[in-house]
Design brief:
single chain, mainly alpha, 2 domains, two-stranded parallel sheet
Length: about 150
């Protein structure tokens, strides 16, 4: 069905997917070659929509675990959980691959400082102190910001 279409149809398919038309519900699954221009254009449209809505400091993530990981590792980025279909489109866009979180340098965060401290000193802490540090200080440090 989509084989004869070129990238000029990308806007229409993208709009129909956003409006949840049944006609394009399974487009992503049926895109035989993810190297075709139509698929690439739809990926780029999803990438642009995401950053227009959430801003350049936002980063799409698949689930809560990945959201926590990004929040801990990258102090200045805001992880946004998106549905799997949208995540696949954004992750497949050329712009995302050149600016993905994998290429962002790991920053020192309050959480990473506390985690390093815990790793270095856990063997000299009592069990009660180690548990309190992990459950209270370490958890609170996820929300702290560097100045």
């Amino acid at each position: 069905m989509y084989a004869g279409m070129d990238s000029t149809y990308s806007g229409m398919i993208h709009a129909m997917e956003k409006a949840e038309y049944k006609d394009v519900e399974y487009y992503q699954m049926h895109a035989k070659s993810k190297n075709n221009d139509l698929y690439k254009a739809i990926c780029n449209l999803n990438y642009d929509d995401f950053y227009l809505q959430y801003g350049k400091k936002a980063i799409p993530v698949k689930d809560e675990g990945e959201r926590r990981f990004v929040k801990e590792k990258y102090n200045d980025l805001t992880p946004i959980i998106v549905e799997e279909k949208i995540y696949k489109y954004i992750a497949s866009s050329g712009a995302f691959r050149t600016s993905s979180k994998a290429r962002v340098k790991t920053q020192v965060t309050p959480y990473s400082i506390c985690k390093t401290f815990e790793r270095k000193h856990k063997n000299i802490m009592s069990k009660k102190m180690a548990a309190a540090f992990s459950n209270q200080i370490l958890e609170l440090s996820r929300e702290w910001k560097m100045r």
